Amino acid sequence: MTTQPPCHAAPADVVDGLRAVIDPCCKEKGINVVDMGLIHSVDVADDGAARVTLVLTSGWCPFAVDLLGEVEAATRSVPGVTDATVELTWDVPWSTERLADSARAKLRWLPPPSAVPDRSAYLAENLTVVNREELFS
C-alpha cells in the first residue's frame, strides 16, 4: 500500500493568497502587498510551514506590526499551509523598481514627462490653486 504525501502549498500559492492583503499606506488605491513589492521571499517547507520575508517602504512604517499580522493571517489561510512565520528584512531596501506596473500606474498622479510637451500649459490646465483660508476653515 502506497501512501500519498500530504498536499502542501507552493510558494506561488502563498503569493497569490497575499494579494488579498492591502498595503495600509495604499488602502485608498487598493494596492496589495505583492504589487507594492513588499514581498521579499516566500518559502514553504515539506511539512507545509511557510516563511514570508517582507521589505518595508520605510523603517518608520507605523503600520508594520499590523501588516505583519495581516500577512501572517493571509499566509495561514492558504490551503496546505500548516504554519506561518513572517519576518522583516532590513538588508534589502525597498525602491520603486519593486512596484508592479499596475501599482506604479495607480500611484502616478502626473503623466510621464514625455506625454507633456508643454509643461506650463499642462500646469495651467490641471493645477488647482487652493486658497489657504478656504483650506483651513
Quick overview of this protein structure:
It is built from 5 helices and 3 strands. By secondary structure, it is of the alpha+beta class.
How would you describe this structure to a colleague?
This protein is 29% helix and 13% strand. The protein has five helices and three strands; from the N terminus they run H-E-E-H-E-H-H-H. A three-stranded mixed β-sheet has the order 1-2-3, covered by helices on one side. Helix 2 (64-76) links the parallel strand 2 and strand 3 (83-88). The radius of gyration is 21 Å and the shape is elongated. 19% of the residues are buried. The model has no long low-confidence stretch (mean pLDDT 87).
Question: Keywords for this structure?
Answer:
single chain; 137 residues; three-stranded mixed sheet; 3 strands; 13% strand; elongated
Q: How many strand units?
A: 3
Q: Tell me the strand order in the biggest sheet.
A: 1-2-3
Extract low-pLDDT stretches: none
Percent of residues in helices comes to: 25-40%
Sheet having the most strands: 3 strands, mixed
What share of the residues does DSSP label as strand, in percent? 5-15%
Instruction: Note the overall shape.
Output: elongated
Helix/strand layout:
Elements: H1 11-18, E1 39-44, E2 49-54, H2 64-76, E3 83-88, H3 101-107, H4 119-126, H5 132-135
Parallel strand pairs: 2-3
Antiparallel strand pairs: 1-2
